[in-house]
Design brief:
The complex is a heterodimer of chains A (369) and B (561). Helix content of chain A is 24%, strand content 36%. Chain A contains 9 helices and 20 strands. The radius of gyration of chain B is 25 Å and the shape is globular. Classes of the chains: A alpha+beta (369), B mainly alpha (561). Chains A and B meet through strand 6 and helix 2 of A and helix 10 and helix 11 of B.
Chain lengths: 369, 561
C-alpha cells in the first residue's frame, strides 16, 4: 500500500490555480524529489500533505486512509521549512526533543531519543547551544534531527539545502539521503535544483503550473523525458525545429531549416510533413576536425566556447544557421578547437528524441513560469 | 515637463535659497556637530535635569522633613497600592489583550478590522473623560447599576480604579501585540504543529516565548500608564488613595513636605521596579517544554477556540468598549436638556471652560513644536548610533524616564524647578512641563522608524552627492513621514490629555482636563448636565483634532503612488 496517495487534488488561491487535478503515489520508504520552477506548486503540495492547507477538491490518503480532516499535529508528517524554523528560545537538544514531548512521550524517553538523533547527525556536542550560535550547515542538521526524532514517519523537506553555500550543498545532499534512509522514513524533498533531485531521489516528480509533467526514476526522466519542457529543464538538451520528411519501417528523416536532412528514429509518432522538435542531449554530440562515422554528420563553425570545469561546451553554427551545442569531457587546459574553426559534428539517430511541435509555440512551451 | 519647470521656478524663491544654503552648511562638520550637541544639551538640561533636580532642591529647602505618623502611614499604603494595582491590572490586560490581538491578526475579516479600530478607542478619549465615563457606567445611577437595581454597582474606590486602568491600558497591549504578531514568522508555529503540537501548545511553547520581549514591553507600558495616570484616577478614587491621589490630596491640604517626599519615593520606586523587571525578566526561563496535551488539545479544538474568541470579545465589550463609550449618553442628555446655547455663549462656568480649552490646545501646540525641533536630531542620533555605544545606551534609557515615572511626581519636581529656581511665569512652566512629559513619544516613534530604513539607502544617496540635510529631506523624511506625523499626533494628544504634571504645576491657570477634574469632584459647583456636557466637549474636540491631524498625515505627497 502506498504511503501517500493523491487523487485528483486541486488547490486554488483566490483565482490562481496552484495545483490542478494532481494524482500520484509515494511508496513506503521512498525518497521522492519534487522538481519544478518557482510557482509550480511545490510548496503547496508539501503543505497539503502536512495538513497546513486543505485541498479544494480530491482526497489525500496515508496508508490507504483518507486524511483530509486530520489536523496537522495528528498526521505524523513533519514539515521542515526552508529556513528550518529552529525555535530560537530553545537549545539544540530542546528543539530536537520538542516533537516527542509534544507527542506525549515521557521526558526521559524524549530526551534520550533527541540525544540519539543528535549523535546520528554528529551534533551531540552542540546540544546545549542555541540555534543562533550554529553555522548554517549545523542548523540544517539540527532541523533534520528534529524531524527524525519527532516520532513521525514522513519527512517533508522544503528546499532543505537551499539556504546553504554551493559547496556545502553538494557535501550534504548524500548525507541527507543516507540519514533519511537509515531511519526508515518516507521523504518528499522539494527543490528547483535538477542535479540535486537526480542525485538523491528514488523517483522524481516534475511539476509545472500545478500539473505533473513527468514522474519516474531519475535515469528514465533524464534519458527519455516525457516532453520538451522536461527535456529542457532536466538535461539542457539541444532543441532543433524540423519537419518530418519520410517515414520507413526502421527510420525516419527530418527536414531542417535550409533543407538540411537528419536521420531520426522511427518511433513513436512521426507522420510525414508533421512539424517536430528534435531533442539531442549535448554530451551525445561529437565534434571533430576530421571525418567521423555517425548516422548524422554535419559541418559547422565554432562560435563560442564555455569552460565549465569538468567539461567544455562548444556552440557550433551549422551551415543552415541552426546552433548546436556539444559537450567534451576531460580536455586539457587548452580547448581542442578554437572559435572560428570549421569542424564536423556528428550524432546518432537513437540519441534523438522526437516531440510533436508544441501547439502554443516553442518559446511558450519552455517558459519557466 | 510640468514638474521640471516647477522646480526651476522654485530655485529662485527665497525659501529655496535658504534651503540650498542650509543643505550646503549641513555638509560642514562643525555645523552638524552644533545641531546634534545643541539638541542633546536641550534634552539633558531642559527635559531631564529639572525632572530630578527640582525635587532634590525642594527637599533641601523645606524647613522640616518630618511627617505625622498618620500621614506617613497613608503615604506608605498609597505607594504600595499604586504598584499592586499597576501589576495586577497589567497582568490581567496581558491575559485579555493577547487573545484579542491574536484574533485580529490571524482571522482577518471586516469584523476584525473594525475590532482593531475599536480597540484604540480608550486611546482616543482623554483619560479624564474616560474616568468620568467609567464612573457613570459602573457607579452612576443611569449606568449599569440600573440593570441590577442597586444604587451603585461598583462604588468609587480600589475596584473602580482597577476597572478604569484595565480599560485604558488595554489598547496599549493590543497595539503592541498586534504589531508583534504581524512581524512574527509563522513558520515556527507551523514547524511546531507538524512536530505534533496542538495549536494551543504551539502558541504557548513557541510563539509567546519567542515574542517575550514584546510581551514584556507591552506589560511595562501598561504598568507605566497605570502608575502614572492621575486625572481619571482622582475622579474614580472616592476616599481611596494610591500614590498619585495621595500626592494630590496632600497638595490640596498644604502638606508640602508630604508632597515632596511622596513624589521622590514614587520616582525612585518606579525606577527601581522598572529596572528590576527589565533585568530579571529576560533571565527568567519557564520550563518551555512542559506539555498538557489533552487539555491543550481541547483548547485547540473548534469549540475551545470558539469559547476563547467569544470570551475575549465579551471581556473587551463589557470592560473596555461600553464603559468608554458610555459618556455619549449623559452628554447627549445634557444637549437635550437645552444648555447647549448657554455653554456655547460662554455663560456661567463656561467662560472659564472655554479659556481652559484654549490654554490646553495652545500648550499642546507649543510643546509639540518644541519636541519636533529638538527631538528629531536626538532620534537620528539614537537610531544611527551617532555617539559612542555607551552614550547611546544612556540617552536611550533616559529618554523613557518621563514615561516610567508617574507624571504627577515629575510635575512636582518640574514645578519647583521652573517656578522657584527658574522664576518663569506659570504659562511657560506649563509648556516646559508638557515638553518633558511628552518628550519620549516623538523621539521613540522617530528613532524606531529611522532604524527601520536600510542604512544603504542613505549611504547610496551620500555617494550620489547629496549633503546630509538633503539626504534627510529627500530620503529619510519621506520614508518616515508617517511616523513623524503619528509621533507628533501622539505628543499632541498626550499633552491635551495630561493631568498629572499639570495638576502639580497649575496654580491659577487650569487646562481643560484639570478644570474638569474639579467639576467632577465638585470642588467647583456645576450641575450634572454641565459636567457631562463639558466632558463631551473635550472628547469631541480631541476627536476632531485627531481626525484633522490624520487627514493631514494621510494626504499623499505628489509624485508618489
Amino acid at each position: 500500500m502506498p504511503a501517500i496517495s493523491f487523487t485528483n487534488i486541486t488547490k486554488k488561491f483566490g483565482k490562481v490555480l496552484a495545483l490542478d487535478r494532481l494524482s500520484f503515489d509515494v511508496q513506503n520508504g521512498e525518497y521522492l524529489c519534487v522538481l519544478g520552477p518557482t510557482g509550480s506548486g511545490k510548496t503547496t503540495l508539501l503543505r497539503l500533505i502536512a495538513g497546513l492547507l486543505r485541498p479544494d477538491e480530491g482526497a489525500i490518503y496515508f496508508d490507504g486512509k483518507p486524511v483530509n480532516r486530520l489536523e496537522a499535529h495528528d498526521r505524523n508528517a513533519v514539515y521542515v521549512p526552508q529556513q528550518y524554523a529552529l525555535f530560537p528560545h530553545l537549545t539544540v537538544l530542546q528543539n530536537v526533543a520538542f516533537g516527542p514531548l509534544a507527542r506525549q512521550k515521557p521526558e526521559k524517553e524524549a530526551l534520550d531519543a533527541a540525544w540519539k538523533t543528535l549523535e546520528m547527525v554528529r551534533l551531540s556536542w552542540r546540544a546545549k547551544a542555541y540555534p543562533s550560535e550554529l553555522s548554517g550547515g549545523m542548523q540544517q542538521r539540527v532541523a533534520l534531527a528534529r524531524g527524525l526524532a519527532s516520532g513521525a514517519d514522513l519527512l517533508l523537506l522544503d528546499e532543505p539545502l537551499g539556504a546553504l553555500d554551493a559547496r556545502l550543498r553538494l557535501d550534504l545532499r548524500h548525507k541527507l539521503r543516507e540519514l533519511v534512509k537509515q531511519s526508515g522514513f518516507t521523504a518528499i524533498h522539494v527543490t528547483h535544483d535538477r542535479d540535486e533531485a537526480m542525485s538523491v531521489a528514488d523517483r522524481i516528480l516534475v511539476l509545472r503550473g500545478g500539473r505533473i509533467q513527468d514522474h519516474g526514476v531519475p535515469p528514465r526522466v533524464y534519458m527519455r523525458p516525457s516532453g520538451i519542457f522536461v527535456a529542457n529543464l532536466i538535461g539542457g538538451a539541444n532543441l532543433l525545429e524540423g519537419i518530418v520528411d519520410t517515414v520507413t519501417e526502421e527510420i525516419s528523416t527530418t527536414r531542417m531549416r535550409g533543407g538540411l536532412m537528419i536521420r531520426t528514429p522511427r518511433a513513436p509518432l512521426p507522420t510525414t510533413e508533421q512539424p517536430v522538435i528534435l531533442a539531442i542531449r549535448k554530451e551525445t554530440v561529437e565534434i571533430s576536425s576530421r571525418d567521423i562515422q555517425r548516422d548524422n554528420v554535419l559541418k559547422g563553425e565554432v562560435r563560442e566556447i564555455h569552460f565549465l570545469g569538468s567539461f567544455r561546451e562548444y556552440l557550433i553554427r551549422l551551415t543552415n544557421g541552426d546552433v548546436i551545442a556539444s559537450r567534451r569531457f576531460l580536455e586539457g587546459m587548452e580547448s581542442e578547437f578554437k572559435v572560428g574553426e570549421n569542424v564536423t559534428v556528428g550524432f546518432d539517430s537513437r540519441d534523438i528524441i522526437i516531440f510533436a511541435y508544441p501547439r502554443q509555440g516553442l518559446r511558450k512551451e519552455l517558459e519557466i513560469s | 515637463m510640468e514638474g521640471t519647470r516647477q522646480k526651476t521656478a522654485d530655485a529662485s524663491t527665497p525659501f529655496h535659497k535658504v534651503l540650498l544654503f542650509l543643505e550646503r552648511s549641513s555638509a560642514r562638520r562643525d555645523i552638524t556637530k552644533l545641531v546634534y550637541s545643541g539638541s542633546l544639551a536641550f534634552f539633558l538640561l531642559i527635559v531631564i535635569t529639572p525632572a530630578i533636580a527640582g525635587i532634590v532642591a525642594q527637599l533641601l529647602t523645606l524647613p522640616s522633613l518630618t511627617l505625622g505618623q498618620d500621614v506617613y502611614a497613608r503615604m506608605q499604603s498609597a505607594v504600595v497600592w499604586s504598584f499592586v494595582i499597576g501589576l495586577t491590572v497589567s497582568s490581567l490586560d496581558i491575559l485579555a489583550g493577547i487573545p484579542l490581538a491574536w484574533l485580529i491578526v490571524r482571522r482577518p475579516s471586516h469584523l476584525t478590522t473594525i475590532l482593531d479600530s475599536l480597540a484604540d478607542i480608550p486611546f482616543l478619549i482623554p483619560t479624564v473623560a474616560l474616568g468620568f465615563s467609567i464612573l457613570e457606567f459602573w457607579s452612576g445611577p443611569t449606568g449599569i447599576s440600573q440593570i441590577f437595581g442597586s444604587g451603585s454597582l461598583v462604588s468609587p474606590g480600589t475596584l473602580l480604579i482597577m476597572l478604569l486602568h484595565f480599560a485604558f491600558s488595554f489598547p496599549v497591549i493590543v497595539r503592541v501585540m498586534v504589531g508583534e504578531f504581524l512581524n512574527y514568522r509563522e513558520t515556527y508555529e507551523v514547524a511546531a504543529r507538524t512536530l505534533g503540537a496542538s495549536a494551543f501548545t504551539a502558541v504557548r511553547t513557541v510563539t509567546i516565548p519567542i515574542l517575550r520581549p514584546g510581551v514584556l514591553a507591552a506589560f511595562l507600558l501598561a504598568l507605566a500608564r497605570s502608575l502614572s495616570e492621575t486625572g481619571a484616577t482622582i475622579v474614580v478614587a472616592g476616599a481611596f488613595e494610591n500614590g498619585v491621589v495621595f500626592i494630590r490630596n496632600a497638595r490640596d491640604a498644604g502638606l508640602s513636605a508630604a508632597v515632596a517626599i511622596a513624589s521622590l519615593v514614587l520616582i525612585v520606586a518606579s525606577l527601581l521596579v522598572f529596572a528590576a523587571i527589565k533585568i530579571i525578566a529576560p533571565r527568567f526561563r519557564v520550563a518551555p517544554l512542559k506539555v498538557w496535551p489533552s487539555l491543550e488539545r481541547k483548547l485547540s479544538s473548534r469549540i475551545g477556540v470558539g469559547f476563547r474568541n467569544a470570551g475575549s470579545l465579551i471581556v473587551f465589550l463589557i470592560f473596555v468598549l461600553l464603559p468608554c463609550l458610555f459618556i455619549a449618553f449623559p452628554a447627549a442628555e445634557s444637549v437635550a436638556a437645552g444648555i447647549l446655547g448657554e455653554a456655547l455663549a460662554g455663560m456661567g462656568p463656561w467662560g472659564k471652560f472655554w479659556s481652559s480649552m484654549l490654554l490646553s490646545y495652545g500648550v499642546a501646540l507649543l510643546a509639540t513644536s518644541v519636541n519636533i525641533v529638538f527631538g528629531l536630531p536626538v532620534a537620528v542620533m539614537i537610531a544611527r548610533n551617532r555617539f559612542s555605544t555607551r552614550m547611546t545606551r544612556i540617552v536611550d534609557a533616559l529618554v523613557d524616564l518621563p514615561i516610567i515615572v508617574p507624571s504627577l511626581a515629575l510635575g512636582v519636581s518640574l514645578s519647583f524647578f521652573w517656578s522657584n529656581i527658574g522664576a518663569l511665569p506659570e504659562f511657560w512652566v506649563l509648556v516646559l512641563a508638557h515638553t518633558t512629559i511628552t518628550y519620549p513619544y516623538f523621539v521613540r516613534a522617530m528613532a524606531a522608524s529611522i532604524q527601520g530604513i536600510a542604512l544603504e539607502l542613505e549611504e547610496a544617496a551620500r555617494t550620489l552627492g547629496a549633503t546630509p540635510l538633503r539626504v534627510f529631506r529627500k530620503i529619510t523624511l519621506p520614508l518616515t513621514r508617517y511616523s513623524l506625523l503619528s509621533g507628533a499626533i501622539l505628543v499632541f494628544t498626550r499633552s491635551v490629555d495630561e493631568t498629572g504634571a499639570t495638576t502639580a504645576v497649575s496654580k491659577v491657570l487650569k487646562t481643560a482636563p484639570v478644570l474638569l477634574v474639579d467639576w467632577i469632584r465638585g470642588t467647583v459647583q456645576v450641575t450634572p448636565e454641565e459636567r457631562a456636557l463639558g466632558v463631551g466637549f473635550l472628547v469631541l474636540t480631541s476627536f476632531l483634532a485627531l481626525v484633522a491631524l490624520r487627514l493631514i498625515a494621510l494626504r499623499k505627497p505628489k509624485g508618489r503612488s
